[in-house]
Amino acid sequence: EVQLVESGGGLVQPGRSLRLSCAASGFTFDDYAMHWVRQAPGKGLEWVSGISYNSGSIGYADSVKGRFTISRDNAKNSLYLQMNSLRAEDTALYYCAKASSGSYDLPSDYWGQGTLVTVSS
Amino acid sequence: DIQMTQSPSSLSASVGDRVTLTCRASQSISSYLSWYQQKPGKAPKLLIYAASSLQSGVPSRFSGSGSGTDFTLTISSLQPEDFATYYCQQRYSTPLTFGGGTKVEIK
Lengths: 121, 107
Known about the structure:
The complex is a heterodimer. By secondary structure, chain A is mainly β.
């Protein structure tokens, strides 16, 4: 059974940093691309970032480019999102999602339950 | 960036109704479109990929069509478990953008 478990969320002050993690199990992690998708309270989905199976291809939303960094450790079956210079508008539930193959531009066929990030002073 | 516009933003329908949701891209995206269903407090679920391919395990009452800029998701006979919010997403180019969603409510 595919499982994606996010962690690392919490309350953080504007301008500070936070690192999210996603522990994956139930599939061959290094065969698949991964995504981070977020959802602000009461709002729609926003794709944040994607990374190919071997980290060779990475993409970001304009809203986070230059501030967030996606990475993965295939030996640890883990996905990460380093978030710097956080802003109030980054407040959201952050989902980790598995792509349907190795390229990050493919749809997400499995999702975690999310970790909540709140940016506030 | 490619903008995805969904309409309507919400609709009310009854069990058994045929429901059609629309998604329009700001430029041609060929068939690089997916549809997701999200229920309150739950993660999204992939329904349709490549505009018209049904994801494994998804009931056949769901279907997708379209190419280029205009796409539809059709639920042939609405069931109680289908009341949810539906999102389209393009994968033609980065950033991979979602539409704003269509909330399907009970009439």
